[in-house]
Amino acid sequence: MNPKLDVLPTALPTPPPPAAERGERWTNPWRSLPRVRWAVQLAYLAFLLLVGWQFLRFYDAVRGGGPIDVARPPSVEAFLPIAALVSLKRFVLTRYWDEIHPAGLTILLAALATAFVARKAFCSWVCPVGTISRAFEWLGRKLLWRRGWPSVPRWLDLPLASLKYLLLGFFVWTVFVQMPLAAIEGFMQAPYNVVADAKMLELLLHPSTTFLAVVGVLALLSLVVKHFWCRYLCPYGALLGVVSWFSPVSVRRDPEACNDCRACTRACPNEIQVHTKLRVLSTECTGCMSCVAACTTRDCLGVTRKGARTLSPWLVPALTLGVMIGFWAIAAATGFWQTIVPPEAFRWAYRVMGIG
Ligand code: SF4
Ligand code: SF4
Ligand code: SF4
């Protein structure tokens, strides 16, 4: 007999049981993530409300007959995603940055960059509509679903989730296939494009019955189905989802450590079955880190980069906010943030478009 075989162990060593079975108490070090996320989301919401208030003052000044002594906040262009998509095509074709709504293009590219480095964390940590959607989730749990939100059955979830990709496909096809460069130049110089933000403000200040009905239906649906708008209808989120598919960063689960408690799945706003995945590669993952914060077992759920060791979950919001602020800082410093349209030209465009 080979003497070396004598010293081999007869069986592989068994892994230690999970901490809970060993009677060890474990406190999840990431449990404060949702609270911090709320703080960041509310801070962004407050910032955008300030932007809206500043834009309202600018809008009033332009419509009035006196001097326009209120600065137009460039961040208002975040609400013009279609114009940003058009100017993205123009930039690809001509290498010219959008001079009318430069901040809109900057914000779109920044959001796409966040989707690559940190999945759709823009939705969970930045977008104000995502914050409102989270508020509806909280309200729905308080009013209707104290014992937990009902899940949308898979046979319904998949076709509903494809709606936003259809909408995205429509916009991408219209802009990138249907619009020649001449039409894009015409669109961008047109008074309608110049006043697009003011038109949106008018819609909010004087909503039509149809608009109110649509918002009301969406609000009711958001109380019945978790994150209805974001999960099923938002084409912006769909675009970020497509880019996030290429992201090397994802939530990963260690099946050896997992005790199948499913707290992660219950915490997920997008009803991803986290407890069954090795890596969450879904384009629906918004990098909110609720699952990581809810995990009940040590070293079980975390964030990883493909082929690399485990990363801190704080990296996801840090990268997201870092990219957003970085794009803003570079654009502001290099002249790609402020519109070249002078205040008097806005006044002319407002008159042409019948605003005020
Ligand atoms: S899905 Fe759309 S509306 Fe919802 S958070 Fe993401 S970008 Fe915002
Ligand atoms: S899988 Fe985790 S990080 Fe992704 S959306 Fe669900 S709870 Fe958030
Ligand atoms: S929270 Fe999810 S990943 Fe963590 S132990 Fe429970 S089932 Fe496993």
TrEMBL record:
Q: Which domain of life is it from?
A: Bacteria
Q: Where is this region: Disordered?
A: 1-23
Q: Which InterPro entries match?
A: 4Fe4S_Fe-S-bd, 4Fe4S_Fe_S_CS, NosR_regulator
List where in the cell it is found: Cell membrane
Give the UniProt keywords, A-Z.
Cell membrane, Iron, Iron-sulfur, Membrane, Metal-binding, Transmembrane, Transmembrane helix
What is the designated name of this protein?
4Fe-4S ferredoxin iron-sulfur binding domain protein
Entry's Gene Ontology cellular component terms: plasma membrane
Which residue range or ranges hold the 4Fe-4S ferredoxin-type domain?
A: 249-277, 278-306
Q: Does the keyword Plastid apply?
A: no
Q: What are the protein's GO molecular function terms? A: iron-sulfur cluster binding; metal ion binding
What residue ranges are annotated as transmembrane? 38-56, 165-184, 204-225, 314-337
